[in-house]
């Protein structure tokens, strides 16, 4: 066998393989540089009892509350939350897409073997020989032509086709020469799609962790308000008893006693309403952990205290925000995905060059299948050039360019929204602390006023309405403070959510 043709074709194929990389068409992706200020605008360290400063953010930020129950709940989110587990399961689809796109970068190899028992048509063979003989008569002159024609026609009258056994085995290879970068763009788009799915999973985890913290802190605040209401009932009951005694002594009218009873009933009605709200909040936390309703009630009703915010809250550096928030990273991955798909659409306008090759053995006898002279092979390129597609390629390119432009705008919007979230969260965290201090001052004043009013009422120097009004102001202020304490804590949770903290711990454990 002469191997020179095979070597020549193989050399030509190597030259084609060396071309990709310098002929890629379409846009090239350049990572955007998100804007960030030199420092956070609303850092507060003056009159706030919990200061914010630009130091490294804690991965498990919920531990800053020093609440073992909150820490326990947060640690269960990454293993039990159904929304997060669903996002985790969705990764398998993106990983499969990446495998499919990556497979096109390599030759496709397959091995085949076959056996066939074949009976060809004798009638077809005879007819073919007759026509060949007739063609020789019409195409030639002389005695030799007539003899050849007669011989072939005679063979056609008596020709038989034997029953044949056909054995074959071969190894086939197909490889697309990525001259224009179509396959490379496709693979990079799949990688960007996988990254976007991963960042979406991180974003889901952050959201669920933040929901858990806000739900838990709100629950603790409402539980604290419930205790305040119950203490208020005791105070109102004491004042009601005083009013009843003065009424029986003929010192006051029935109005004082009836007003006290009405206030007592109103507070008890609020307690019943708060019990309903607390039960719903406990069920919401159970749902976040994929648990049945009521499964966390016993656990959540122990040690009812409102977690205290830390004196110093690290918020990281402004330049780190784009790298820490998964939604920004996801938007960037989607932008790269759109760019790479645009490049793939551009490459579809150019010819596709494919190398096809196979090598194997063919024989009519199984025992001859392994002999070298039974070999059969072919190798060579094929070219596919789009000539007319009815506008499909142009429409596809316009579609991808539109998606690329939309992805760029979405990225800018995501970055801008992130800075608004941080700015609003920092402002709210500071302002709620200011409100807390004012409420504490108000409660101190109301306590003093209530003691004076009770003393004057016992002495008959004032009527019951003054006592009732003063007590109502105190109870309202205490309820507002209990709610504010929870709001300060939830404001801190919102701040960490805006800063994009919490997913790193899960990512490091993969």
UniProtKB/TrEMBL annotation:
Entries under InterPro entries matching the protein: MdtP/NodT-like (IPR010131), OMP_efflux (IPR003423)
Membrane-topology descriptor: Lipid-anchor
Pfam families given in the database record: OEP
Parts forming coiled coils: 257-291, 422-456
Subcellular location: Cell membrane
Secretion signal, residue range per the UniProt entry: 1-18
Main location: membrane
UniProt keyword terms in alphabetical order: Coiled coil, Lipoprotein, Membrane, Palmitate, Signal, Transmembrane, Transmembrane beta strand
Any single Gene Ontology cellular-component annotation: plasma membrane
Single Gene Ontology MF annotation: efflux transmembrane transporter activity
Similarity comment: family membership: Belongs to the outer membrane factor (OMF) (TC 1.B.17) family.
NCBIfam families, sorted: outer_NodT
Protein name listed in UniProt: RND transporter
Source species: Acetobacter aceti NBRC 14818
Lineage: Bacteria, Pseudomonadati, Pseudomonadota, Alphaproteobacteria, Acetobacterales
